[in-house]
């Protein structure tokens, strides 16, 4: 499998570090569009990969914390994760503008063994800079955030960048089921092609053994639902086209909700 780069961000932690001097090279925000359906297999792939990168970035942040690195004092605004199924993950912590960011620290997380930190202070390669730039644009483009905390994962798919913005809660017994976004960019023109929201409103649920949702923003569940199922357990969704079960990141059509209980 090719290395896939994803950028992750916690909106509440790093948004205070943004300034007009770090504006994105990507096109400014565009109006909200209707959520497009994607194939279930692609939704599964995106959701699983995004969550893997979220976990890798969280682990890397803990490594910096234990090394007594103050991310705010270092000017860090975001991070990019380069992951290999066999070699582990490289998490690049970056500062500066989206046009020309600088890699401040690199944390290597091996499949087994002790993570390693390297202080770099070098310009980011073009591909990493573009994805970091897309993350910044997505962060600014979230309308009426449902929570103070957002995790943004940017995936490169051919000549497109897909940013998945997940609203999150620090409370383990709560599920943020609404307020998630999908942004799509053209990598060559650096235009935002579309901005889509997975739900019309915000929804905060108590965590139970299984979660039941109504979803009418699109005909089928998407990558946000896959992430929710991987994080919180089985998810049962009623959409305009029927009933769906998402269990361990896999989407399956069901005859009814009752048959999945």
Describe the structure.
The protein is α+β, with helices and mostly antiparallel strands. Helices cover 21% and strands 36% of the residues. The chain is built from 4 helices and 15 strands. The protein has helices spanning 11-14, 40-66, 126-140, 223-232; strands spanning 4-8, 78-84, 88-95, 102-109, 116-123, 149-157, 160-168, 174-176, 181-186, 191-197, 204-206, 211-214, 235-239, 242-247, 250-254. The chain is globular and about 55 Å long. It starts with a strand and ends in a 7-residue tail after the last strand.
Quaternary organization: single chain
Question: Helical element count?
Answer: 4
Shape: globular
Could you state the order of secondary-structure elements as H and E?
EHHEEEEHEEEEEEEHEEE
Average pLDDT reading = 84
Please identify the structural class as seen in this structure. Answer: alpha+beta
């Amino acid at each position: 499998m090719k290395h896939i780069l994803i950028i992750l961000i916690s909106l509440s932690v790093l948004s205070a570090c943004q300034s007009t001097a770090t504006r994105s090279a990507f096109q400014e925000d565009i109006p909200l569009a209707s959520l497009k359906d994607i194939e279930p297999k692609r939704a599964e792939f995106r959701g699983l990969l995004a969550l893997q990168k979220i976990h890798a970035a969280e682990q890397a942040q803990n490594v910096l914390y234990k090394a007594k690195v103050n991310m705010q004092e270092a000017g860090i605004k975001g991070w990019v994760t380069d992951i290999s199924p066999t070699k582990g993950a490289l998490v690049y912590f970056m500062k500066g503008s989206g046009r020309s960011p600088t890699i401040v620290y690199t944390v290597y997380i091996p499949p087994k063994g002790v993570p390693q930190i390297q202080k770099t202070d070098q310009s980011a390669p073009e591909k990493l800079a573009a994805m970091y730039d897309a993350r910044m644009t997505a962060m600014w483009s979230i309308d009426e955030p449902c929570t103070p905390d957002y995790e943004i994962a940017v995936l490169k798919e051919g000549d497109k960048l897909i940013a998945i913005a997940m609203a999150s809660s620090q409370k383990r017994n709560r599920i943020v089921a609404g307020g998630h976004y999908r942004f799509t960019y053209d990598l060559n023109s650096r235009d935002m092609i579309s901005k889509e929201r997975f739900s019309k409103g915000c929804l905060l649920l108590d965590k139970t053994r299984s979660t039941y949702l109504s979803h009418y923003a699109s005909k089928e569940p998407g990558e946000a639902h896959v992430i929710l199922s991987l994080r919180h357990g089985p998810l049962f969704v009623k959409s305009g086209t029927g009933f769906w079960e998402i269990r361990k990141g896999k989407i399956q059509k069901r005859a009814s909700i009752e048959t999945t209980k």
